Known about the structure:
By secondary structure, this protein is an alpha/beta fold. 38% of the residues lie in helices and 26% in strands. The chain contains eight helices and nine strands. The protein has a seven-stranded mixed β-sheet with strand order 3-2-1-4-5-9-8, with helices on both faces.
Amino acid sequence: MDRKLWLAEKRKMTEYRYDSIFSKNYDEKYGQIDPTHRRYVERLLSVSPVGCIVLDAACGTGKYWTMILASGRMVFGIDQSDMMLKLANRKYPEVPTAKLGLQEMHFTDQFFAAMCVDAMENICPEDWPLVLENFYCALKSGGHIYITVEIAEEREINEAYRRGIEMGLPVVYGEYVHHGGYHYYPQPVQVKTWLVKAGLHVVEESPGDGYFHFLAQKYGPKK
């Protein structure tokens, strides 16, 4: 099985699942903001100028927009799911949005702040450098980004890899494929390496609420 084609199918399936399944009751099931997530969003806002526009990438239903708007900042949301964006637009008709995947971001020096919360697990390892490069380009010099990386137990990762190989799938270690879904769980040290290579300096990091949290800053030329 060709891995590139397989990954493209997984990405289409992810979009379909958000459009047809998760959008039905997303706010009811996942609308609560966990403490560590709240702290990092507040930290991102604290280092971003009042009145600036925050890029919320993979914004979903706009879960964090009340926090952003209440802080005196504005927000621009992007997502690859039509239905999730429609839900966000219903709640916040004044917030501009665009249907756009993380891999297709094309902004240049536009934002002092960006965030991608509880979504990077949908990105395959081949696309991580591309997505971080896109964030680097989107940020103004000195701008900050907050991203999360979902945590999975090593036992689960091992079992998922073993099962994928047995099924004849072109999986790599860290990928979890189940019931049509796709997740990838990189180790924090790998994430930090990718961030540095993208020109993003890690300012703060910690685990919490089932995720690793990273606040990083665009600080100069990439390595």
